[in-house]
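Exercise 7b. Backbone tokens:
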């Protein structure tokens, strides 16, 4: 493992010529940044930590809120990427004190576990489809996708499983987001990974950025129609199902349903409902002012009853995140 940790890490340029690592969940340094037992213990004690914080003087509470790096009631796409990189892969990046502190916190390990598990789920869905239909192109629709780490790493997992499956077909990653920083960096990552000697060299991969307000999902329906006959996967990790309203989720699912093929899938992450979510997570998000949709599986099922999608499978991560897979009824 120590020898493998010296494995080369490709970088892409962010704003102002800043070099950032391209996140690869198969890299030993990424895997070394996940300790599921430590994360579980952190979740158990987090409720007590929040209660202690609430008893501290107001100026200390204000410092803690600023340290959380939350802007406009959510964590930005690029900051989320930084915490997904973790303390090992982010080593050497010039960061402010707040980010240096946050990237080392065990609580953010959940973002790395969530990403890893969702990519495994998505690759397991797509592998049999790619094997069965070698003539079909592949398309990702990534709602609030930011830097599209789940789509990129799903391709990495597929390539490691069977590198021939991605050759000879068009592959698109469509990031539907109001943010521009994350998608711009994602495009630069793809450009680097397609260079000679890199993972995606020789593959026909295109990354498109679409300015997208999920309260107006007509663009998703139109794009799905334009890729009729393609293998289509719509995903939203840490996005629509964690921050969107019930009506927004219903409308996006219904619009994607109309033109997508029968074997289309929807994947994503959501937060446990208020009654069952980790008390520390609930206290933390309320303390710093994050506007989370505590949907839970029951809430998702309530939403699905107003669509033609059904739950195919789900996977829980320590009473905070639920990953899910939807198929057409």
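Sequence design result:
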């Amino acid at each position: 493992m120590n020898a493998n940790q010296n494995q080369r890490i490709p970088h892409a340029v962010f704003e102002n010529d800043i070099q950032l690592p391209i996140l690869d969940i198969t890299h030993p340094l990424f895997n070394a940044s996940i300790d599921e037992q430590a994360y579980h213990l952190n979740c158990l004690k987090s409720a007590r930590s929040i209660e202690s914080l609430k008893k501290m003087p107001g100026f200390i509470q204000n410092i803690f809120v600023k340290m959380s790096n939350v802007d406009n009631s959510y964590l930005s796409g690029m900051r989320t990427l930084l915490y997904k990189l973790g303390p090992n892969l982010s080593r050497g990046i010039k960061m402010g004190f707040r980010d240096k502190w946050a990237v080392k916190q065990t609580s953010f390990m959940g973002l790395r576990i969530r990403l890893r598990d969702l990519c495994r789920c998505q690759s397991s869905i797509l592998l049999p489809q790619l094997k069965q239909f070698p003539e079909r192109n592949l398309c990702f629709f990534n709602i609030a996708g930011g830097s599209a780490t789940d789509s990129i790493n799903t391709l990495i997992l597929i390539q490691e499983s069977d590198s021939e499956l991605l050759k000879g077909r068009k592959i698109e990653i469509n990031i539907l987001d109001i943010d521009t920083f994350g998608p711009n960096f994602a495009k630069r990552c793809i450009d680097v990974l397609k260079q000679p000697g890199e993972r995606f060299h020789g593959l026909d991969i295109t990354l498109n950025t679409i300015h997208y307000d999920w309260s107006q999902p007509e663009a998703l329906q139109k794009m799905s129609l334009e890729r009729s006959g393609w293998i289509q996967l719509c995903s939203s990790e840490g996005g629509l199902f964690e921050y969107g309203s019930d009506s927004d989720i219903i409308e996006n699912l219904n619009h994607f349903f109309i033109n997508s093929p029968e074997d289309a899938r929807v994947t994503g992450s959501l937060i446990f409902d208020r009654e069952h979510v980790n008390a520390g997570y609930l206290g933390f998000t309320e303390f710093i002012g994050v506007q989370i949709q505590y949907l839970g599986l029951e809430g998702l099922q309530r939403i699905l009853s107003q669509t033609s999608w059904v739950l195919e499978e789900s996977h829980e991560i320590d009473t905070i995140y639920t990953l899910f897979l939807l198929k057409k009824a």
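Instructor comment: The chain has 13 helices and nine strands. The beta strands are 11-13, 19-21, 138-143, 170-177, 204-211, 231-236, 265-271, 309-317, 321-328.
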